[in-house]
């Protein structure tokens, strides 16, 4: 029953502990686990209330996932 809810929305998949684990395992098998880390880093940025922390978080996301030399480039 829980698995059937996952097809309703991506958010339902990610908010389920088993769903997140299964999706992460799939991404690992596809050598693309950096995508879920990028998603959660962006969600953390989006939910940041402190304006003073936004530029630091944005730079971290850029350095880790976006720049040409990013260790976990997406």
TrEMBL record:
Q: Which PROSITE patterns match?
A: RGS (PS50132)
The record's SUPFAM superfamilies line, in alphabetical order, gives: Regulator of G-protein signaling, RGS
Where would I find the RGS domain in this sequence?
9-74
**PANTHER family, A to Z:** REGULATOR OF G PROTEIN SIGNALING, REGULATOR OF G-PROTEIN SIGNALING 16
**Protein's name according to its UniProt entry:** Chromosome undetermined SCAF25264, whole genome shotgun sequence
Protein species of origin: Tetraodon nigroviridis (Spotted green pufferfish)
């Amino acid at each position: 029953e829980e698995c059937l809810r996952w097809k309703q929305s991506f958010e339902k998949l990610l908010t389920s502990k088993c769903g997140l684990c299964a999706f992460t395992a799939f991404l690992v098998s596809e050598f693309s686990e950096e995508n879920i880390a990028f998603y959660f880093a962006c969600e953390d940025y989006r939910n940041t209330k402190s304006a003073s922390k936004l530029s630091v978080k944005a730079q971290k996301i850029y350095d880790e996932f976006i720049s040409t030399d990013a260790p976990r480039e997406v």
